[in-house]
Amino acid sequence: MNRILATIIFSPLLAAACADKPACAYKSLCDSQADAAATGLFEALDRCASRGVMLGHQDDLSYGVGWVDAGDGRSDVRDVTGDYPSLFGWDLGHLELDSLRNLDGVPFDAMRRNMLSVDRMGGVNALSWHPRNPLTGGDAWDVSSAEVVSSIISGGALHDRYMAWIDRLADFLLSLRRDDGSLAPVIFRPYHEMSGSWFWWGAELCSDDDYKVLWRETIDRLRSRGVHNIVVAYSMADYADERQFAARYPGDDYVDIVGFDIYQYGSADEFLSQMKTKSGIARAFADKHDKLWAICECGYEGIPQNDWFTAVLAEYACSTGCSHLLLWRNAHDREGHFYASYPGHASAEDMRRFASRDDVLMLSDFKRIVQSAER
Ligand code: BMA
Fold it and tell me: Domain 52-365 class?
């Protein structure tokens, strides 16, 4: 599918048609050497954003409440709604250590296998990364030193060692080979929630300039290793205006999707007011920079409100031009740590209703839109 879409995008006819429009319907990727699959993915995301929001779920095929992957395609989202999500999130944390499993115990081999099966099914894969602290040896949440980023960017004592970590990411991204030899495309979302200070790359842990250098050097290193199958996402935590949103933005040549992570912790009113502010700013920024915008992580842990999906989440996520929203993971080994519903939970019927909205795109909806574009 992606190759065909890429051909459509780059057809001289379409280029001419777009030339005289202020905002061309087709955005281009920040990587001038992006391969056909990544280009096709981005075009599909762009096309779908005007039709509805793609529903995503982290670790959807790896485990759910009360089960772990047995290779049978089980999914809490599918068990509740009858369809898979259109977007599947995964996390690369601990890949940098050459570990066989990620920070949540998911074997990287199984992750690769599942990602390729998502790609075959016609879904979208999105990667986040919670790398360990390269200076202290602690985890991604180890904020005991404000010297970490300066020590790993060019000129820092750990730069070469850190670049070897990025090379491991490159190896993984280049291992996502389809049967026909091409690479599966993936959304890559590094160094997220950078306006907060709970990760070693956070606001109070490094300067905006050092953060931007880290981002650019990471993407440049991947590109120099031949990685051209990624769509890059910049995902903030809290911000109140465009200046704050843009503070760590590494530049239009290094980002394709802008967005934010958002969770409900207090009242629905508080959550909705944040959603309104954050989505309004992200959307305006995306329009100005010709990028897509997305809710890169979201949810309400344990879903304590039975109609949360239709009564709260739907308000600013659907029909607003948002490309996708990713519900966080349904842990199998941490009581109450789940963000999508599962069979038997009181929110299941509501999530099913949410998923059946015309402007919420499940896997079959996404495929229908992409296939109609191919015809
Ligand atoms: C957090 C929690 C953790 C997890 C981490 C990375 O939000 O879900 O349990 O280890 O994400 O997936």
Answer: alpha beta
